[in-house]
Design goal:
Blueprint: H1 3-23, H2 27-51, H3 56-86, H4 91-94
């Protein structure tokens, strides 16, 4: 399978994730869209690694996945805490936290 297919899939996944962040108002959906964008970047790193016949991209993906796991733990804890106080995870309602 040509490497260009992986790049096209990565671009499609990143676009879907970016649209999810920009359009949706639910914090969990936004969070999942950010994770989708990270996975699209990981797919690009692996494709570049395969294209250049090196393992550097795959090692970088390992570190990105590690950081993403920590981000998920902290992000979900924040979302659960905000839900307990506001009874909603709608981003428009969370905008009131600025005041």
């Amino acid at each position: 399978m040509p490497v260009s297919y992986y790049f096209a899939l990565s671009a499609i996944l990143f676009t879907i994730g970016a649209l999810g962040v920009l359009i949706r108002r639910n914090a969990i959906v936004i969070f999942m869209s950010i994770e989708l964008m990270l996975n699209a970047a990981n797919l690009s790193f692996v494709a570049f690694s395969q294209l250049h016949d090196t393992l550097r991209g795959q090692v970088l993906v390992f570190f990105v996945i590690t950081v993403a796991a920590a981000e998920v733990a902290v992000g979900l804890a924040l979302i659960v805490t905000i839900f307990k106080t506001k009874q909603s995870i709608n981003v428009d309602v969370l905008n009131e936290l600025k005041q």
